[in-house]
């Protein structure tokens, strides 16, 4: 009997089952708690992302800091699902507290209190039941409307005074109205961005034959104030300013530069390098005197400068003309040189044509080329016998400097900033030729974070878009003197402008700058307007590639260009190729491709096209 009892195994199954159930129940408890933990974690993340997007929209709509934080908390807690709000902590970091602005950060901490884990711990470990808490955190970062830096690069050439196609208004008036409309559209949005510093900035770059950087920059570190640039003496022969020609005010060469010598220089110039700025300072006119009956000066003659530098600069030699390379005296060709239009010959040719830029009295003999570069004439204060006014913009030494000065990036989220930009647009004046590459290059430089203009945000800053809007109503133009009814007795092969003369007197290069960096498709001996256009268009194409490679968004507008005109059709194609791809729109003719940021505008459509540009820029600033 006793042996039968010890041999009986039937009760072991129940005992084994009970013993086995302990770890099984613990595992099930852990599994249930883990599943619930995952669910609560996901619901917290979902609530966090939803609250971030919703709060960002509130900020965009103009909510105050306190209201934005309160809204974020309410929205977050309302979307937690099975998660108890009491078990969460929300931290909101508004955009104005982040470096660079524009980013809203929401962080949540969750304390999960398991249902079964304490009992499982007791069953498995034998300890007393206790409350076990699992902690985790989550983060959601919302880019709150990109900051924008927009450069308006606008054609100010003489053709802008013509009537716009399909309109009874002048193109220039239509352009000014449309550009100001764009500023208003974007500044209205910017006003709501209280948490972001300088959310939208505009610069304005009027261009014609040249670009005006502003005479206030005369002494800027990036201006060539010491004559190091290879362009400084390109059309001037300082060797003619000798003690024999001008005993008290002459030049002596040392190294590559000429230095002021003689008793007529003042202490600021004596023994210093002579530059183009020196000519502006020392070239005189009669400002007042005692006159005879014929208004000729007889005594008490007072002299004053004949002109002051208007602010226009020459185009740097290739490749720096189509780059944003910083100016440095260690690389002289990167420095910016003030424009100075040489006084051309007094002589007329066999067709009775005068020189294009004959604004001073020659005081030399010899060939017309020699007379053009002869320096003593600029330092002979006794020239003339009558009181004469000073030369202004686009005349005298400032010939081809016809535009108003660049307006650097300006915050239009303030009424004062928006007014500044719109006033600058109103002040633009149309005159001169068309040099789109020069305008676009300076537009890029205004967006840059480095000199000459430093108002741009760092190129590495996330959430900021730099945009070039380039508008022109014609092909690039550079003129031969004869095409404008003037003579070219000096053999310069062009009128003077930002690229200097096509055939300069004293160049450091094989040929004029207009041909530097061009392909074999551009003849270096074809001195015609058409060939000049071809050369400039090649520069423009390379410049477009350079800007886009630097993450500049390029928008282009062809205004009233005629596709039946060969040069204008080529310009339209070049402008379209230059433009960037839209991030938001597809090409209506081929939906597999993005739309190009190019507008083929007429006077009648310009306003609507600028509204479309404004919408495109607004899309760059959506919450993402």
Automatic annotation (TrEMBL):
<keyword id="KW-1133">Transmembrane helix</keyword>
<feature type="domain" description="Putative Flp pilus-assembly TadG-like N-terminal">
    <location>
        <begin position="11"/>
        <end position="58"/>
    </location>
</feature>
<dbReference type="InterPro" id="IPR028087">
    <property type="entry name" value="Tad_N"/>
</dbReference>
<feature type="transmembrane region" description="Helical">
    <location>
        <begin position="12"/>
        <end position="32"/>
    </location>
</feature>
<dbReference type="Pfam" id="PF13400">
    <property type="entry name" value="Tad"/>
</dbReference>
<keyword id="KW-0812">Transmembrane</keyword>
<protein>
    <recommendedName>
        <fullName>Putative Flp pilus-assembly TadG-like N-terminal domain-containing protein</fullName>
    </recommendedName>
</protein>
<keyword id="KW-0472">Membrane</keyword>
<dbReference type="InterPro" id="IPR036465">
    <property type="entry name" value="vWFA_dom_sf"/>
</dbReference>
């Amino acid at each position: 009997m006793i042996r039968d009892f010890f041999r009986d195994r039937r009760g072991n199954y129940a005992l084994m089952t009970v013993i086995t159930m302990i770890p099984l129940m613990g595992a099930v408890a852990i599994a249930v708690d883990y599943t619930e933990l995952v669910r609560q974690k996901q619901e917290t993340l979902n609530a966090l992302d939803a609250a971030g997007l919703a709060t960002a929209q509130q900020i965009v709509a103009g909510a105050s800091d306190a209201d934005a934080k309160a809204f974020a908390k309410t929205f977050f807690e309302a979307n937690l699902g099975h998660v108890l709000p009491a078990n969460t902590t929300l931290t909101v970091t508004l955009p104005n507290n982040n470096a660079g602005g524009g980013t809203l950060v929401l962080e949540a901490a969750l304390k999960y209190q398991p249902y079964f884990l304490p009992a499982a711990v007791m069953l498995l470990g034998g300890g007393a039941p206790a409350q076990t808490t699992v902690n985790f955190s989550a983060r959601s970062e919302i880019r709150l409307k990109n900051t924008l830096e927009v450069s308006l690069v606008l054609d100010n050439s003489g053709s802008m005074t013509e009537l716009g196609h399909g309109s009874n208004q002048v193109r220039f008036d239509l352009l000014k109205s449309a550009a100001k409309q764009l500023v208003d559209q974007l500044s209205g949005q910017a006003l709501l961005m209280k948490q972001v510093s300088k959310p939208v900035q505009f610069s304005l770059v009027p261009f014609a034959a040249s670009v005006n950087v502003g005479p206030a920059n005369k002494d800027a570190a990036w201006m060539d104030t010491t004559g190091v640039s290879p362009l400084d003496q390109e059309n001037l022969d300082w060797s003619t300013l000798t003690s024999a020609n001008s005993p008290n005010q002459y030049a002596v060469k040392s190294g590559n530069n000429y230095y002021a010598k003689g008793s007529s220089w003042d202490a600021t110039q004596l023994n210093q390098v002579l530059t183009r700025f020196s000519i502006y300072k020392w070239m005189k006119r009669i400002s007042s005197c005692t006159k005879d009956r014929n208004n000729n000066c007889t005594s008490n003659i007072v002299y004053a400068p004949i002109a002051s530098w208007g602010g226009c600069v020459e185009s740097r030699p290739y490749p720096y003309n189509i780059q944003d390379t910083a100016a440095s005296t260690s690389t002289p060709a990167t420095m910016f040189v003030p424009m100075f239009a040489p006084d051309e010959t007094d002589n007329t040719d066999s067709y009775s044509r005068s020189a294009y830029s004959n604004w001073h009295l020659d005081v030399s003999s010899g060939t017309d080329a020699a007379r053009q570069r002869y320096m003593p004439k600029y330092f002979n204060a006794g020239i003339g016998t009558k009181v004469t006014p000073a030369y202004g913009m686009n005349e005298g030494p400032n010939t081809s400097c016809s535009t108003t000065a660049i307006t650097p990036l300006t915050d239009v989220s303030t009424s004062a900033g928006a007014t500044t930009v719109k006033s600058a647009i109103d002040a633009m004046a149309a005159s001169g030729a068309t040099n789109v590459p020069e305008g676009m290059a300076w537009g890029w430089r205004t967006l840059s974070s480095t000199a000459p203009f430093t108002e741009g945000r760092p190129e590495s800053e996330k959430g900021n878009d730099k945009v070039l809007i380039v508008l022109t109503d014609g092909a690039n133009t550079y003129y031969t003197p004869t095409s404008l009814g003037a003579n070219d007795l000096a053999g310069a092969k062009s009128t003077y402008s930002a690229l200097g003369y096509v055939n300069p007197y004293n160049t450091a290069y094989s040929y004029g700058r207009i041909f530097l960096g061009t392909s074999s498709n551009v003849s270096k001996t074809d001195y015609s307007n058409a060939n000049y256009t071809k050369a400039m268009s090649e520069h423009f194409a390379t410049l477009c590639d350079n800007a886009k490679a630097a993450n500049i968004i390029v928008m282009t507008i062809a205004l009233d260009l005629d596709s039946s005109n060969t040069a204008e059709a080529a310009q339209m194609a070049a402008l379209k190729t230059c433009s960037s791809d839209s991030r938001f729109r597809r090409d209506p003719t081929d939906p597999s491709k993005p739309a190009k940021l190019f507008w083929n505008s007429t006077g009648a459509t310009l306003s609507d096209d600028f509204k479309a540009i404004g919408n495109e820029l607004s899309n760059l600033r959506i919450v993402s």
